[in-house]
Amino acid sequence: MNLSDLQRTVRFFGLLIASVLPLHVSLSYKILILLKNGIRSKENTMKKKKIKKQKEEIVTELSTVKFSEITSSVEM
């Protein structure tokens, strides 16, 4: 193996690494975005569940208030 073969080999692996590196960075970035979106989606789901629970609590509270108003008006 002479110097020109070594230079070609080094150049080949250099180009190979240079062509694969952006792909790797791109895939890593896409994976990070997917993870971030997954976390955000889970947070949104938790917020929706919390809001739904609060709505249910308000509805039950209002219904009990209305029921007590109705019973008090009937007693009069």
* Total of DSSP H or I helical runs spanning 4+ residues: 1
Structural class: mainly alpha
Low-confidence region ranges: none
Q: Report the end-to-end length measured between terminal Cα atoms.
A: 109 Å
SSE order, one letter for each helix or strand:
H
Q: Count every beta strand, where a strand is a DSSP E run of 2 or more residues.
A: 0
Radius of gyration: 33 Å
What share of residues is helical?
Answer: over 70%
Q: Proportion of β residues?
A: under 5%
Shape: rod-shaped
Task: Tell me, rounded to a whole number, the average pLDDT.
Answer: 79
Quick recap:
The protein is an all-alpha fold and 76 residues long. The chain has one helix at 3-75. The mean pLDDT is 79.
Architecture overview:
By secondary structure, the protein is mainly alpha-helical. The chain has one helix and no strands. The chain has one helix at residues 3-75. The longest helix has 73 residues, at 3-75. The protein is rod-shaped.
Question: Main traits of this protein?
Answer:
76 residues, mainly alpha, 1 helix
